[in-house]
Amino acid sequence: MLRRKSAYLIVPKGKEINLMLDNNYIVGLVDGEGSFNVRINPDKNRRAKVELKFSLKLRYQDKEILDELQNFFECGNVYIQRDKRKNHTLCYRFEVQNKSEIVEKIIPFFEKNPPRIASRKRDFELFKKIVELAFADSINFEAIQELKSKMHWGSLSTGKPFAKWGTKSVDTDEGNARQTNRVM
Fold it and tell me: 86-144, pLDDT tens digit by residue?
């Protein structure tokens, strides 16, 4: 498959369209539909103890944008995501899970082009710190868990407490999240 950093895409009918896929467009997509995620895997039989993921999900009609993102970053994969719940449609997800690609391509891009929405910008900064800790010789799972708990506005905005690494106790992360009132 030919990879290029073009803002154009050849569609099946042979018609070329401009997707306007530049740095600002990508940041806007990620602000609206993207996610920086971390999963801590305590299973001693698994190789990856800290799993990192950058992803962006769009409806099936916009799959071409995800394919072009894959070309732009020169990494990751595009997956189908079926959802059988009512009022949900078929989606595709662009995902980067390879640690080297996250360090060499995703983080440098967002350091130069940071997310503009405060919550996504905060998630990226926390994600970046977790990536640094995940590459240490001795991984500090407790520190990673603490940073992870602050992602996605932490436990106060969701009302969900987080469990500390290696214990069954539950703690709340006060003072790190902003409460917002939704106006309907």
Answer: 877 889 999 999 999 999 999 999 999 999 999 999 999 999 999 999 988 888 888 99
Distance of alpha carbon 44 from alpha carbon 122, whole angstroms: 30
Rg (C-alpha) for the chain, rounded Å, is 18
Residue with tokens 């001693």: 44
Average pLDDT of 152-168?
Answer: 52
The residue ranges of DSSP E strands in 60-126, in sequence order, are 77-81, 91-96
- Read off the tokens for 74: 């020169």
- Domain layout of the chain by residue ranges: 8-167
Least confident of 6-10, 52-56, 128-132, 168-172: 168-172
In CATH terms, the fold of domain 8-167 is Endonuclease I-creI (3.10.28)
Distance CA 165, CA 130 (A): 14
- Can you spell out the DSSP letters for the chain? ------SEEE-TTS-EEE---SHHHHHHHHHHHEEEEEEE---TTSS-SEEEEEEEEEEGGGHHHHHHHHHHHT--EEEEE---STT---EEEEEE--HHHIIIIIHHHHHHS--SSHHHHHHHHHHHHHHHHHTSSS--HHHHHHHHHHGGGHHHHHT--EEPTT-S-EE--TTSS-------
Cα–Cα distance, 92 to 48 (Å, whole number): 25
